[in-house]
Amino acid sequence: MSDSLLNNSLWFIPMTFVAAPAVAADYLSIPLAQQLLFPSASSFIERPTLFDSGARSAIKSHAGTRQRQDHQPIWRVEKDGQLQGWFMVDDVIGKHEYITYAAAISADGEVMGIEVLSYRETHGAEVRDESWRTNFKGKSLKDPFKLDEDVPNISGATLSCRNLLDGVKRLLTIHELFLARES
Amino acid sequence: MLRRAKPMLGTLTDIRITAPGHADVKVAMTDAFRLMSEIDTSLSFHRPMSALSSLNASPMQWTDMGRHGARILWLAKALGRLSDNRFNVTLGGALVTVGALPCHTEADFLPCGSWEDIEIKGTRARLKRPVLVTLDGIAKGYAVDMAVSCLKRSGVRAGSVNAGGDLKVFGEYGIKVLLRNSQGFTDTLWLKNAALASSRLGGGPDARFPSLIICQDAPPENSPQTESLLSVIAPFAWRADALTKVLASATPDMVTRLGGHIPYPASNPESTP
């Protein structure tokens, strides 16, 4: 879009950046998130997973995003001995800081829900990001998970929601590569 | 106080409960998030399968928009009429053309229309011409309003819902809000029992803020020509959001007439009523 078009046609670029005091927010603890995402589960068996460099490369090539940490907190969720799904805690970079979130993934590899645990942006950046990328529920690796598929690509933009989306795809990949065989 | 956030409505949506009353806060929050999710699913321009996309894909044909969809279209139409089309939800075609919105239809469409192109009967709607309706901010604001209603119905006495800057505060406790522009913080205000929305006017295209709104008329003489912040307080988030767009090309008098007011004249002294 040229500058002249911008000026002549009066293109207004709306931006939402009203922030209730812009400070880092801790929303939920891990036990609370577990309760919300798996309300009927009877046990959460911690299964922290340590990835070596080969595993991290495999995740990167399948998911398209880098697996930063070696240690991935994972819980196997059971109800009366039956597998209900997997609860994972993960970090993705928002605009400047990490967003800590939890994802519930079903035994079949579908997202059952997402909860934000901590948001640490100090400048209210979260409320400025507009990606229209929203409902993760029911998403699986069969879904495109591509920004261009149903959201216009924005070059150079670092969108918290988009990063969450990439993070969720990475968690689904971890499920497929390392957890699905136990399902 | 309990707070929860979810990625929703294209942003991080935050609910805080400051006075739970007799409500089961976990259930109340879950219900409020679910309601917002339903509105998002049915009314997002970006979702090819949404009711809004069906409406856009089939001009002249009646499409069931659901209760929320029909209400938002009705509100958008009414505001379009009352603001002499300064608030216009039929500009989707122009936004698709510049790549600000995805294109879900192979048929030809007009770059823009007016509120008169939308016809509503019950929960069904149709477009009289092949325009593309985009509800963006108004639907997000409406979702915030509905989430607040849902919390109140559950018994919550005070709290707030914030979806990407469409903020509504209800109950006896106000909250402090920082309004800022690209240069930094500009003002602090206490918001109580009201909604607040902001838009940026002017400046060049910015990858961080990809949305575009097209205004057909020239701005009023006292409208700021340089990049500035337009914020509106209104009783409802949908109206506050919509009125920031009206304010971009109309005098503050019109905003006041339509039920909003400008919270901080300091950033826009020329246009103070």
UniProtKB/TrEMBL annotation, chain A:
<keyword id="KW-0288">FMN</keyword>
<keyword id="KW-0813">Transport</keyword>
<keyword id="KW-0249">Electron transport</keyword>
<dbReference type="InterPro" id="IPR007329">
    <property type="entry name" value="FMN-bd"/>
</dbReference>
<dbReference type="InterPro" id="IPR010209">
    <property type="entry name" value="Ion_transpt_RnfG/RsxG"/>
</dbReference>
<dbReference type="Pfam" id="PF04205">
    <property type="entry name" value="FMN_bind"/>
</dbReference>
<keyword id="KW-0285">Flavoprotein</keyword>
<keyword id="KW-0597">Phosphoprotein</keyword>
<protein>
    <submittedName>
        <fullName>FMN-binding protein</fullName>
    </submittedName>
</protein>
<feature type="domain" description="FMN-binding">
    <location>
        <begin position="94"/>
        <end position="175"/>
    </location>
</feature>
From TrEMBL, chain B:
<keyword id="KW-0808">Transferase</keyword>
<dbReference type="GO" id="GO:0016740">
    <property type="term" value="F:transferase activity"/>
</dbReference>
<comment type="similarity">
    <text>Belongs to the ApbE family.</text>
</comment>
<keyword id="KW-0479">Metal-binding</keyword>
<dbReference type="InterPro" id="IPR003374">
    <property type="entry name" value="ApbE-like_sf"/>
</dbReference>
<keyword id="KW-0285">Flavoprotein</keyword>
<dbReference type="InterPro" id="IPR024932">
    <property type="entry name" value="ApbE"/>
</dbReference>
<protein>
    <recommendedName>
        <fullName>FAD:protein FMN transferase</fullName>
        <ecNumber>2.7.1.180</ecNumber>
    </recommendedName>
</protein>
<keyword id="KW-0460">Magnesium</keyword>
<dbReference type="Pfam" id="PF02424">
    <property type="entry name" value="ApbE"/>
</dbReference>
<keyword id="KW-0274">FAD</keyword>
